[in-house]
Amino acid sequence: MKTVRYIAAILIAMVLFQGCGAYSFTGTNISPDTKTFQVNFFQNQSPRIFPGADQTFTNQLQDLILNQTNLSLSTSGGDIIYEGEIVQDYVSPNTATSNITAAQNRLTIAVNMRFYDTKDPTQDLEQRFSFFFDYPASSSENTIRDQALDVIFERITQDMFNATLARW
User: Fold this and answer.
1) What's the distance, CA 115 to chain centroid?
2) Residues 6 or more apart from 125 whose CB is under 8 A from it?
3) CB neighbour list of residue 80: distance below 8 Å, 6 or more residues apart
4) What separation, in Å, do the N-terminal and C-terminal C-alpha atoms of the chain show?
5) Helix (DSSP H) and strand (DSSP E) numbers for the chain
């Protein structure tokens, strides 16, 4: 009976240790020989263009990767490369009142992203990411836009990071 317990304990330990082998304590699945990343300018190609949104998004993506990895930012020749464009920026009514007017509006932004891993091209990815911000219809879009962009861009950049480097 003791032999069966020892064998069971060894099998359980082997399974647990094997599962831990792929975990990275940095929270990312980056190849050890990957040292640099590059974020090309995400140009705003949506029908509605607000000055500075594209630069703000590009900077937020760079900052997120700098803060969550030990990679160095490169302006060219990066080991991993992000590029893409902002393709949607629109406001739509979200909820209505009994007077058939909007009680709440929703600002939605979508970004097309292309990710290239020069060390492992099997990890390359092209995907669209979007998120939204709801605000009272009584508020002007101009008054909430900066706050909305912060929330939307934070979510989209984190989703992009998770899809590419964290592999969630």
Assistant:
1) 11
2) 113, 114, 115, 163, 164
3) 30, 34, 36, 37, 38, 71, 115, 116, 117, 118, 119, 164, 165
4) 42
5) 3, 6
Q: Could you give the count of Cα atoms lying within 13 Å of 138 in the half-sphere of its Cβ?
A: 2
**Beta-carbon count within 10 A of 22 CB:** 8
Give, in order, the Cα–Cα distances in Å from 86 to each of 33, 47, 82, 83, 108. 31, 10, 13, 10, 11
Please count the other Cβ atoms lying within 10 Å of the Cβ belonging to residue 68.
15
Residue keyed to tokens 């304990």: 9
Q: Please name the residue that has the structure tokens 């939605």.
A: 108
Residues whose CB is less than 8 angstroms from the CB of residue 116 and which lie 6 or more positions away in sequence, other chains included: 80, 81, 83, 124
Measure Cα distances from 17 to 10, 21, 62, 167 in Å.
10, 6, 34, 21
pLDDT in tens, the chain (168 residues): 666 565 655 656 555 555 443 334 345 567 788 999 999 999 999 998 888 999 999 999 999 999 999 999 999 999 999 999 999 999 988 876 666 666 889 999 999 999 999 999 999 999 999 999 999 988 888 899 999 999 999 999 999 999 999 875
